[in-house]
Design brief:
alpha/beta; 14 strands; 24% helix; five-stranded mixed sheet; Metallo-beta-lactamase, Chain A
Length: 249
């Protein structure tokens, strides 16, 4: 997700990357061209990597931060001027995960890049259960954490939108009991979803789904039984007028 304010170009997550090798690509069904994020930013947004000012990392699973780096003669940052916003507790967990989820964290790739950003003064540690990520004048991005998918999963939000990341990865996961097999604590996920849904309804927010190829977002509603459900899906089409609302304008 790209958010543009008056003075900032902000990315939320970076995708899986394209340097893992054919065996890995076959296992996870990865398709696409080289440098997909760079190409997309260039063709659709007229932005180069050095134009990205901030990068919000929801969590450090390989399919969310793989695009943070690229491998040439060495593994280097794709966005060399961006400030990285990373939750400190999640980073510490990612370096010492359980055997259940150790394969989801490719620390050999992300750890040197985060350390480099820290050394260059481009690392902003997020702490606690909620708080402010960044601001640009009157424009503010805040965050809340969930814990069922992975500890201290960051959900950025503003006055209109909230990024669900892997708490609700697709529109099909909106029902509270529908959780991912990757979740480290599925029961906690249902508790987190319920709490987030109450927050989302109170704020009137639109959810953004990171892993849905047909619906980029959706609005929450209640069934006749009082259960949370998807009231409206925002489909991925170039003519969708709501796409233009994915900014602070």
């Amino acid at each position: 997700m790209l958010i543009q304010t008056a003075h900032k170009n902000i990315l939320v997550d970076t995708g899986i990357g394209d340097y893992h090798g054919s065996k890995f690509d076959d296992r996870f069904g990865i398709q696409g061209e080289k440098n997909p994020l760079i190409e997309l930013l260039s063709k659709k947004c007229k932005l180069a990597p050095h134009d990205i000012t901030d990068l919000i990392v929801t969590h450090l699973h390989f399919d969310h931060v793989g695009g943070l780096g690229q491998t040439t003669s060495e593994h280097v940052e794709v966005f060399p001027k961006a400030t990285l916003h990373v939750h400190k507790n999640h980073y510490e967990y990612a370096l010492n995960p359980t055997q259940r989820d150790t394969g989801s964290f490719h620390s050999q790739y992300f750890k040197p890049l985060i350390e480099r950003a820290h050394a260059e003064g481009r690392l902003h540690w997020l702490t606690g259960e909620e708080g402010e990520v960044l601001r640009d004048g009157a424009d503010v991005i805040r965050f809340r954490c969930s814990h069922g998918h992975t500890p201290y999963l960051v959900h950025p939000y503003d006055e209109k939108f909230i990024y669900m990341a892997d708490l609700v990865p697709t529109s099909h996961h909106v029902p509270v009991p529908w959780v991912m097999g990757y979740d480290i604590a599925p029961g906690r996920t249902t508790v987190d979803k319920t709490d987030f849904y109450k927050f989302i309804q109170a704020k009137g927010l639109t959810m953004i789904f990171e892993h849905d190829v047909t619906a980029w977002g959706g609005k929450l509603g209640l069934s006749p039984k009082g259960e949370f459900q998807l009231e409206r899906a925002m489909e991925v089409t170039s003519s969708d007028p709501l796409i233009s609302e994915l900014s602070f304008d």
